[in-house]
Every structure is written in C-alpha cells, then in structure tokens.
C-alpha cells in the first residue's frame, strides 16, 4: 500500500511543482476554470495519442514490433513520427481548440500557461502508466527529466502560438501560418530527438541527450521568462 502511494505521489508531484512555477510567473492570473479545462485537455490528448497509435500500427504493421528490434531508420521513423509528431499534434489540437480563440488569451504569456497545463495533463497520464509499470527508478527519472521535457516542449509550442496570435492581430497572415507550423514542428522535432537518443541505447547518443536536455531546459525557461515580462494586448 505504501509503495503504491509513493508511486502515485512521485507521479503527481512534478506536475504540481512545474504547474505552480509557470502559473505564478503570470502577472495577470488565468481563470482556474480555464486551466482545469486545459489540464483535462491534456488527459484527452493522451487518449487521442493512444487511439492514433493504434490506428497507425494497424496501417503500418512493422510499428507493432518492439522498438528494440528496429534498425536506425525504423527507430528514426518511430521516434519522430509515432512518438514525437503524434504526441505533439494531439496536444496541439486540444490546446488550439480549448484556448486559441478564448477571450482570456489577451497576453503573450497566456499561451505559455495554457500549453504547459495541456502538457501536464498529458504527462500525468504517462507518469501513472510508466511509473506503475517501472517502479521508483522510473518515477525519479521522469520526475527530473521526462515531465520537465514535456513542459519544455510545450513552452516552445506556446511561444510560437503566441507569435502566431500576435501576427494575426497585425494582419500578417503569412507570418501567422509560419508560426502555426513552427508551433507543431519544433516541439515534434525536439520530442523525436529526445526519444531517439534515449531509445537508441548507444553511449554517444546518451551523451548527446544530456547536452540536449540541458540546452532544451535552458532555452525553454528563457522563452518563458521573456514572455512573462512582455505586456502586449492581443485582442483586436
């Protein structure tokens, strides 16, 4: 009983800590009702990811194999398409539906908060599934790496969606399309790199992963701080 409660605690605590950090950086706090809806949206995004994975694996049977038997090209396709692109598109869809046109989205930093709460809902589902299967060690790894990774990628998603919204208010439609694309593409690439390095099992990629994750966390936090200091009204 205590062991299972410990696993549950370790699954939840990074979600609370990271959510609180991003929330309290916001000068003009977002409605809790909207944030709760976005958190639930993240859970729905996790379910959508599972459904899309099942569909893709049925369409392309070689993805049904364990990733441990993949060659380099297959692993690349798996990590960048099945993992990276599918997960980030699932989060993006729910994020866009639940917040992009919401009247509360009136400051650049707002979308950072929204994207993080989507990511935290998603990460909670992943945490519970992985931690209860893998135990304390997996819980600790996810506490310090996986959940902050999800949040960092979501910050890039929110950053480019904010830029798209700003372009929209200035009637720069081509620029808006560019930032919309980047809001999906950049997190998906980062996610693919993350998983490819972890799943490859090669020492050189694990070393690269450590460098990559440090840069990712640093750059994401820099963008978070940058937008938290800007006050630009996005309402036309």
Task: Write a structural description.
- There is one protein chain.
- The protein is mainly α and 236 residues long.
- 83% of the residues lie in helices and 0% in strands.
- The chain has 7 helices and no strands.
- The protein has helices spanning 2-24, 32-59, 72-100, 108-134, 136-169, 173-200, 203-228.
- Helix 1 runs antiparallel to helix 4 and helix 6 packs antiparallel against helix 7.
Key words describing this protein structure:
0% strand, single chain, mainly alpha, 236 residues
Distance, first to last CA: 54 Å
**Shape label:** globular
Distinct helical segment count? 7
- The ordered H/E elements are HHHHHHH
Write down the oligomeric state.
single chain
SSE-based structural type: mainly alpha
> Would you identify the regions where 5 or more consecutive residues have pLDDT less than 50?
none
Cα gyration radius (Å):
18 Å
Largest sheet: none
Summed up, what is this model?
By secondary structure, the chain is mostly helical. The protein is built from 7 helices and no strands.
What is the element layout, followed by pairings?
Blueprint: H1 2-24, H2 32-59, H3 72-100, H4 108-134, H5 136-169, H6 173-200, H7 203-228
């Amino acid at each position: 009983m205590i062991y299972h409660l410990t696993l549950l605690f370790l699954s939840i605590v990074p979600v609370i800590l990271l959510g609180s950090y991003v929330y309290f950086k916001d000068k003009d706090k977002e409605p809790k009702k909207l944030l709760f809806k976005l958190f639930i949206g993240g859970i729905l995004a996790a379910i959508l990811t599972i459904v899309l994975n099942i569909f893709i694996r049925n369409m392309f049977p070689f993805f049904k194999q364990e990733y441990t038997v993949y060659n380099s090209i297959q692993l690349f396709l798996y990590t960048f398409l099945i993992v990276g692109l599918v997960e980030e598109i699932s989060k993006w869809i729910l994020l866009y539906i639940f917040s992009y046109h919401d009247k509360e989205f009136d400051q650049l930093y707002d979308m950072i908060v929204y994207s993080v709460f989507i990511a935290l809902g998603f990460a909670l589902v992943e945490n519970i599934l992985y931690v209860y299967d893998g135990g304390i060690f997996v819980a600790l790894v996810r506490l310090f790496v996986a959940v902050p990774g999800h949040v960092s990628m979501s910050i890039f998603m929110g950053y480019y969606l904010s830029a798209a919204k700003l372009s929209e208010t200035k009637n720069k439609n081509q620029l808006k399309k560019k930032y919309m694309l980047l809001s999906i593409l950049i997190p998906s690439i980062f996610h693919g790199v993350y998983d490819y390095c972890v799943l490859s099992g090669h020492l050189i990629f694990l070393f690269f992963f450590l460098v990559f994750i440090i840069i990712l966390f640093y750059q994401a936090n820099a963008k978070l701080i940058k937008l938290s200091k800007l006050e630009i009204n996005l309402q036309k």
